UniProtKB/TrEMBL annotation:
Organism annotation: Arthrobacter alpinus
Name used for this protein in its record: MarR family transcriptional regulator
Record GO biological process: response to stress
Molecular function GO labels: DNA-binding transcription factor activity
Alphabetized PROSITE patterns for the sequence: HTH_MARR_2
Pfam families in alphabetical order: MarR
InterPro entries according to UniProt: HTH_MarR-typ, MarR/SlyA-like, WH-like_DNA-bd_sf, WH_DNA-bd_sf
Amino acid sequence: MATPAPLPMDPIAEAKRQWVAHGWADAADAMAAYSSVMRAHQLMYSRVDAVLKPLGLSYARLELLRLLSFTRDGALPMASASARLQVHPTSVTSVVDRLEKDGMVRREAHPTDGRATLVVLMPAGRELVEGATTVLNSEVFAQPGIPAGDLRTMTAILARFRRESGDFTDPVQYPDPL
């Protein structure tokens, strides 16, 4: 699919102008910020998807494989995966179903909790996620199209927004040992 030509103007700036013109100036900056984040998400997701699709991966599948690869044993309870990925358990089940069908993960009973199921990373899944991460890092993350300082500022602003929206709490800061 060909990349569409850039628009001759910024539609979000125009929407903000219209917001102000229609008497909603007090909400115009927030509308523009929200719209900008949503559009940036679309653009970023498209870049990531273009890299992952040829590898047979979606971002959701990559996230789960990467999460499992970060664990000591390559395994996590499905409920823990759901919590860490911040997605509904049904979504994790769906991703695990597809990855299991492709031989990338397997399910196994939790050794001490009869109610829990572990998702276990298989060698083919580890190989796929390592290769996909290498390609994603070189083709997207190493050249994000945003200067490094701006990335850090953007991440900090969005983290503050997420924290204040109840997405996470700051970890407890323990004192240094005496």
